[in-house]
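wait is this the right file?? whatever heres the structure
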């Protein structure tokens, strides 16, 4: 199953570059914040790290603020009005993690709720009134559990406005022994599933789903998974027909991320570039979801990274890409889909005051 292991990243001073009107920024980004989760410690093995979110202006990329956190942020979501952050911690020493609602203005924790399953995602649903955290469906108002995803399913991300998400399960072939992945559309309120897609290459070879997202149309699922010990594919599948609409079997690592633009027309997919055999360079694939087709691959120099986070900025034409490398410089990159400019706009290289930070969740939301 898909599992996130966040690495130490050596960070330091922030270097900012300006933006122009050629597609690298736009009026849609005015009044929005970028949140980058991190922690600092005097030593990498420190038991008392300082955890917080860096808060940047999404328009000019200036560092506006920081928000202290009670936990290391593994996943997060920003409320539609920008007033609240929902932060999920990881399990520690076999103890369940928690979800925290943090007030952006006061920087205080509003409520805390334990999560029953540490894999999965944090996703806002039903216009921000519900929060999917692992297998639990929570009320964003008070944090109470109002629903539960069956233990046989691994829930993934779904569009914010409704109650549908992508969910994966394991089925068994006709021989009664061979397991394979199934991705369906799950209604977290009713528990009903709609449609079914068995991730597979057009050759018929099945793919084990490790990461998956539901398209806003509620019918297509975007899947990243393995079809051999060292080969990974990105797929777009139709849960109504079961057809594979697009395949890219030439990826390496199964720990990449998928993001869908707000208008549903574009997807970006990361490949950490850490194959089990051979060498590769970190890159991001850009897909036209209307064609569908891969339209561009952006390669990034520097160290191979082990995992990453990626998200669209407001307007859907700029993308924030945060690679996570072990003990290497890991610059945050913001690139434009209009210009395909891969210049690094936020860089935090080296070490500061002997501290070794880690990097967690990232998110974008309106400024309250």
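ok assuming it is, sequence goes like this
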């Amino acid at each position: 199953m898909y599992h996130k292991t966040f690495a130490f990243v050596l960070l330091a001073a922030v270097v900012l570059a300006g933006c122009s009107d050629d597609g690298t920024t736009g009026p849609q980004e005015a009044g929005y914040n970028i949140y980058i989760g991190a922690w600092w410690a005097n030593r990498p093995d420190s038991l008392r790290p300082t955890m917080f979110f860096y808060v940047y202006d999404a328009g000019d990329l200036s560092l506006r603020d920081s928000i202290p956190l009670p936990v290391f942020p593994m996943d997060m979501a920003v409320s539609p009005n920008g007033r609240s952050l929902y932060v999920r911690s990881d399990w520690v020493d076999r103890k369940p993690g928690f979800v925290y609602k943090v007030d952006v203005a006061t920087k205080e924790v509003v409520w805390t709720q334990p999560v029953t399953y540490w894999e999965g995602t944090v996703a806002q649903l039903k216009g921000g009134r519900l929060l999917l955290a692992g297998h639990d469906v929570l009320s964003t108002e008070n944090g109470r559990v109002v629903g539960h995803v069956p233990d046989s399913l691994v829930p993934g991300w779904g569009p914010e406005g409704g109650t549908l998400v992508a969910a994966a399960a394991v089925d068994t072939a006709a021989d009664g022994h061979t397991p394979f992945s199934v991705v369906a559309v799950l209604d977290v309120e009713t528990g009903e599933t709609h449609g079914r897609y068995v991730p597979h290459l057009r050759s018929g070879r099945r793919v084990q789903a490790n990461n998956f997202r539901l398209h806003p149309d509620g019918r297509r699922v975007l899947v990243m998974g393995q079809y051999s010990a060292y080969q990974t594919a990105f797929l777009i599948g139709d849960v109504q027909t079961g057809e594979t609409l697009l395949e890219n079997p030439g990826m390496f690592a199964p720990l990449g991320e998928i993001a869908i633009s707000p208008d549903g027309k574009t997807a970006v997919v990361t490949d950490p570039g850490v194959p089990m055999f051979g060498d590769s360079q970190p890159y991001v694939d850009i897909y036209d979801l209307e064609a569908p087709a891969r339209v561009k691959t952006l390669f990034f120099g520097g160290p191979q990274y082990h995992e990453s986070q990626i998200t669209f900025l407001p307007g859907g034409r700029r993308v924030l890409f945060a690679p996570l490398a072990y003990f290497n410089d890991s610059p945050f990159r913001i690139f434009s889909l209009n210009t395909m400019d891969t210049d690094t706009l936020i860089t935090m290289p080296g070490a500061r005051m002997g501290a070794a930070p880690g990097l967690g969740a990232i998110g974008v939301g309106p400024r309250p």
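The chain has a mean pLDDT of 77. so i think its the right one actually
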